[in-house]
Amino acid sequence: MGHSDPIWDHKAAIELTKDWNGIDQVVLRSPLGASVKVSLHGGQVTSWRNDRGEELLFTSSKAIFKPPKAMRGGIPICFPQFGNCGSLEQHGLARNKIWTIDENPPPLAPSDSHGKSFVDLLLKPSEEDLKCWPHSFELRLRVSLAADGKLTLTSRIRNINGKPFSFSFAYHTYLSVSDIRYVVFIAVWLTPFFEVRIEGLETLDYLDNLWQRERFTEQGDAITFESEVDRVYLSSPNVIAVLDHERKRTYVIRKEGLPDVVVWNPWEKKSKAMLDIGDEEYKQMICVDGAAIEKPITLKPGEEWMGCLEIMVVPSSFCSEGLDSLSKYL
Q1: 44 known member of a binding site
Q2: Per the annotation, does 156 bind a ligand?
Q3: Could you report the per-residue pLDDT of 147-171, keeping only the tens digit for each?
């Protein structure tokens, strides 16, 4: 469940427990008090708290925590598809399966474990899985928590099949935010300013799932929310930011191997139609996913793909400092 480190090797940093359904979960802790919970159901991060104990990820009060239902919240792993098509369930099979702890993970650079608590998980397809998606694979996931509270997820997918296969992938990240609808007016200019906004996706093309995946170009100077949003932003920068003015914090998201970004909020009407989310909970959540969707990844036999997502929370002032200055935190 990880390797020794000359600086950070406290047994108390990693704990194997069970959730209230009796499903195994791993709890990671940093020396400053941040924590992460990872469920073996779906290999899913279900909680990420900062050193003050504040929850940074959204989980619905109506979430169903029992297999085979995927949990509404945290960071589900979407593989081998994002969305709903073919014989597979919504967003693929990975988020609904029981993973195992990987006792023999591939070696990583010392910097990948230095000063961090981490766990390595593994998913292989069952015979039933192969009936739905007939491709043998190994999906490895490392979840690590740095001393400063930064959360990193690294996935490695290897084709152990006799023929090539293609897949889509996403870290379906539910961030906890203040009221996403709330707008303040800057008195001097009487200009509306949204409390929650995404920066770094300006001028990009996106596929709009509310318009049959029609392609549009983002016109705003930031992404803000006044109604349902379900978009895939294409060929996006590797660093984007989610600003939450009311809570005076910014999520800085850095990604590798994941060219796309999904932005989703179900808004009022769709929330009321969903069984596993509260009618009003859309106000306190936003999904911002590092993803590979527009151009599926193809692996030949024996080939491996890697995708990485890092999320860090930094204090933020009323006006954005800009991504250039935020990138210093990564």
Answers
A1: no
A2: no
A3: 999 999 999 999 998 899 999 999 9
